[in-house]
Amino acid sequence: MVENGGIGTEPTGAAPDGQYQSARITVPVAGMHCAACANRIERNLQKAPGVREANVDFATGRATVEYEPDKAGIRDAVQVIREAGYEPAEAIEEEDPEQRERITRVREYRALQRKFWVSMIIGIIASAAMAFSSITVVLNSLRLKAFNPARG
User: Fold this and answer.
1) Buried-exposed string 120-129: b where 16+ CB fall within 10 A, e elsewhere
2) 57 strand-pairing partners
3) Which three-class secondary structure state does DSSP give residue 148?
4) In sequence order, what DSSP letters do the residues of 69-110 get, joined into one string?
5) Nearest to 26 by CA among 69, 71, 57, 68
6) pLDDT confidence of residue 102
7) What is the pLDDT of residue 2?
8) Cα 114–Cα 32–Cα 88 angle in degrees, nearest 5
9) Which residue pairs, CB below 8 angstroms and at least 24 apart, start in 31-38?
10) What's residue 124's pLDDT?
11) Which residues of the chain have pLDDT under 50?
């Protein structure tokens, strides 16, 4: 298997003249949050011209694509994944695939942390506003009872 900065390529199926009929790549994909995400990417890859087989594994966060090199390439698969709304790992020659995957996971984790804290702050502000509103209603009703005992 030849590694290309997180994107692995592997020739499959030799033709009679010694040329490979197809190649297989593995692309780490960020942004998948459920099995439906993986199914969406897989369906889009399978529809792409030159793709023989596509398999997207949500658990590992990787897409494996078998394609015909004369009809499609790594860039085509990466483009299909982007068009589906997900972020494939960028190819950087000097990094090993495990390092690229760790970097991708850390970025995804930090993005989720940011979303969590923003949601937490908004939730606290909303809760405080609702509590203040409730306290105001209670105090107003108590004040009315205190000044007008006949209403109580």
Assistant:
1) eeeeeeeeee
2) 62
3) coil
4) TTT--HHHHHHHHHHTT-EEPPP-TTS-HHHHHHHHHHHHHH
5) 57
6) 80
7) 37
8) 95
9) 31/85, 31/86, 31/87, 31/108, 32/56, 32/58, 32/61, 32/86, 34/58, 37/86
10) 96
11) 1-6, 8-10, 15-16, 18, 91-95
For residue 68 the two structure tokens come to 């015909």
Distance CA 92, CA 99 (A): 11
How far apart CA 138 and CA 141 sit, in angstroms, is 5
Report pLDDT digits (tens) over 121-150.
Answer: 999 999 999 999 898 888 888 777 666 666
Q: What is the pLDDT of residue 123?
A: 96
Which two structure tokens, joined as six digits, stand for 141?
A: 């009703």
Pull the structure tokens for residue 115: 């979303």
What is the amino acid identity at position 136? T
- Closest alpha carbon to 62 in 76, 42, 83: 42
Phi, psi for residue 25 in degrees, rounded to 5: -125, 155
Q: Are 35 and 18 in contact (CB under 8 A)?
A: no
At residue 98, what are phi and psi to the nearest 5 degrees? -65, -40
